[in-house]
Amino acid sequence: MRQLTSGVQRSGAPVASWRVGRGLARRGSAAIFLLVLITFVVGAATLTMALTSGVQSKITDVANRRDATFYAAQAGEQWAIWNLQNNSDWLEELPKSQALPNGYTYTVSATKADWPSPVTLISTGRSPNGAQSVAISVTLSPANTAPTLAIGGQMADSGSLRIQGSVDAIGDIDRSGTMTLSNIPGQPPSSLETMGAFNSSGNFSVPGNILANNYISSSGNIIAGGNEQCGSFLAQSGHVQIAGTIKSEDNPNLNLSTPTVDTSALINKVGTVTVPGGTVSTLNFTQASDGILYVSGDVDFSGNMTIIGTGTLVVGGNCNLSGAFGQHTSPAAMNLVINGDLNMSGSMNLNGLLYVGQSMNKSGSTTVNGVVVVKQDLNGSGSFTFNYAAPPSFLQISGGGGSGQSSVNVSNFTGPVF
């Protein structure tokens, strides 16, 4: 029997044991490396997610502040419209700013403070730190348009009339010449309305209605794009072309009123300058801070007028015009407000309001780009051309417009789209 010894051979078990230990060491290093790699990847992913979340949060915050700034601008727009509906003089207070509870603000300004002429409001919203600002603009005009020609009494005319817009009369309308009405862009069809009777022996055309509380009588040609209705008899012997319905003995019950100018308010306004009456050849509106000149008595315009600047002339008495008041190529840019009569045998070319507190008697040529108001009778034999333009702010329009008017048309809205 062979005796076992305690000696260890070089090729024995101890060698194999060393190899196994070295393999375990290598495996341990790989595991550690893998663990470090996984930790690095997870950490990088976490960091990336955190950075992405932070960037996304900033983007969201910017978008939210941008939207909030836009809403602030919208709040300013609504605030401005509300103020304008309730006080036509409010525009004179602009620009104005308001702060909102969240720290945002808005500032409202106007490009033209002459309500009820169309006015553009600009509302600018700002974020609390001022980094964000958004501006929106809106154009406002009265929801109800004044008639281009408003007559408080009767109209008796044998001339040629071309009118862009409607005609209203409290009394009878007697026409023996040619009368043509056309539409105002963006407004309902122009019409002729009278609380009295309508007599026409010439040619008459209107895109809208012919309405009379009394009778309608015609022996000439009548063309209407709307209805014809009267409260009494209807007698027509000429060519009649009515697109809508024809009704007689069916009172439309018109309740018309003519616009009014408060001349006392204009005269007593700070900055109004009193100028001599009599024969006047020059009007210099630049000498009045508010552009208002006042003549306490009668005034005569007998030659070619020289008009410097723009504004309003208030005549306390009668106005006699036998010369050239404005030229066809360069109309007088002003408002002419007359407390008394207007007696005109010359020519008038006016861009503005023509307001006659009593009667208007004319035989010359008249072109007005604006609104014409005659509080009593209109008698004429010359040619009229009236093109509608929005009346000045001091003209109080019944049924809408002017001070205290109840609604506005909103158009030409501009601003960012989110």
Task: Describe the protein in words.
This protein is of the alpha/beta class. 19% of the residues lie in helices and 38% in strands. It has two helices and 39 strands. It has a 19-stranded parallel beta sheet that branches. Strands 18-15-12-9-6-36-34-32-29-26-23 form an eleven-stranded parallel beta sheet, with no helix packed on it. Strand 3 (119-126) and strand 4 (133-142) form a beta hairpin. The protein starts with 12 loop residues before the first helix and ends with a strand.
Defining traits:
single chain; 418 residues; alpha/beta; 19-stranded parallel beta sheet; 11-stranded parallel beta sheet; disordered C terminus
Question: What would a concise description of this structure say?
Answer:
The protein is an alpha/beta fold. It has a 19-stranded parallel sheet that branches. An 11-stranded parallel sheet has the order 18-15-12-9-6-36-34-32-29-26-23, with no helix packed on it. Strands 1-2-3-4-39 form a 5-stranded antiparallel sheet, with helices on one face.
Indicate the overall shape: elongated
Largest sheet: 19 strands, parallel
Kindly state the number of beta strands: 39
Return the average pLDDT rounded to an integer: 81
Low-confidence stretches: 1-20, 398-418
Helices, by number, come to 2
Q: Indicate the proportion of strand residues.
A: 35-45%
**Straight-line distance between termini:** 102 Å
The whole-angstrom Rg is 40 Å
Q: Structural class, from helix and strand content?
A: alpha/beta
Q: Give the fraction of residues assigned to helices.
A: 10-25%
